[in-house]
Amino acid sequence: MAGTNRPLEGRIALVTGASRGFGAAVAVRLAAAGAHVVCAARTVGGLEQTDDAIKAVGGSATLVPMDLFKFEQIDLLGGSLAQRFGKLDLLVANAAMLGHLGPVAYSDQKVWGQVLDLNLNANYRLIRSVDALLRAAAAPRAVFVTDRIARSGIAYWSAYAVAKAGLDTLAGLYAAETAKTPLRVALFHPGPMATRLREQGFPGEAANAQPAPDAAADRLTARLLSEDGLAAGKVADWD
Whole-angstrom Cα distance, residue 119 to residue 116? Predict the structure, then answer.
């Protein structure tokens, strides 16, 4: 490990949904801490903006334009990373969509499926794809970005709440199944942020009503560096 200014020197990190918002903010902070960040997202222009921000803090990144709805692309990702890096020290599974809010009984079946595919099933495929790479690292960490709405039971949050609840369970299973390895798993609740997803869920809210994603990204980075609450076989519950 390098000095305190770059404590993640030599580490390889993968961040999904890294083209904007919280994912981009996390990618920049991990790069500033010394990690080489693999930034995955669908929007090439957004990835290039993240790359510019990473270079501005003296960091480095690999950009991976990919569509997480196309599971075959996720399946191939692990092999590509293995050829280039041989390991993965940190996974931040952040990519998400809100879908439609409203009564479950009247939900659109296509949108319901899309929300579950991106927020839950893509993360299952991601685990399958990079598990061997995480196990190849000395002290691997996997962080899944969730939402407390998944545990609230508040009406009308539809497939989004269901998918995030499933993600929480998926993370717990993964932690239990890797208990005898150095891998540690965490859930992170960023809280309200000024992001596109927030705007979709609360369209009448003032644009400056919530903080920028930077504060939540700072909290996650601090948690990772302190390893607060990480334990074998259990999921750290961070906010």
Answer: 5
Torsion of CA 181, 74, 24, 39, to 10 degrees: 80
Measure the CA–CA gap between 229 and 187, rounded to whole angstroms.
11
Q: What stretches of the chain show up as alpha helix (H) in DSSP? A: 21-32, 44-56, 71-84, 109-116, 122-135, 158-177, 196-201, 214-226
Number of H-type helices and E-type strands within the chain: 8, 7
Q: In whole angstroms, give the CA distance from residue 126 to residue 128.
A: 5
Residue range 159-218, pLDDT digits in tens: 999 999 999 999 999 999 999 999 999 999 998 876 787 787 777 777 787 888 999 999
Angle at 34 between CA 28 and CA 39, to 5 degrees: 40
Taking only the tens place, the pLDDT of each residue in 108-154 is: 999 999 999 999 999 999 999 999 999 999 999 999 999 988 788 88
> Could you give the 3-state DSSP secondary structure of residue 137?
coil
Q: In whole angstroms, give the CA distance from residue 133 to residue 142.
A: 11
What CA–CA distance (Å, rounded) separates 136 from 123? 19
pTM score: 0.94
Written as six digits, the tokens of 67 are 């569509």
Return the CATH number of 12-237, one of 3.40.50.720, 2.60.120.200, 3.30.2420.10, 3.10.180.10: 3.40.50.720
Closest alpha carbon to 186 in 127, 144, 139, 135: 144
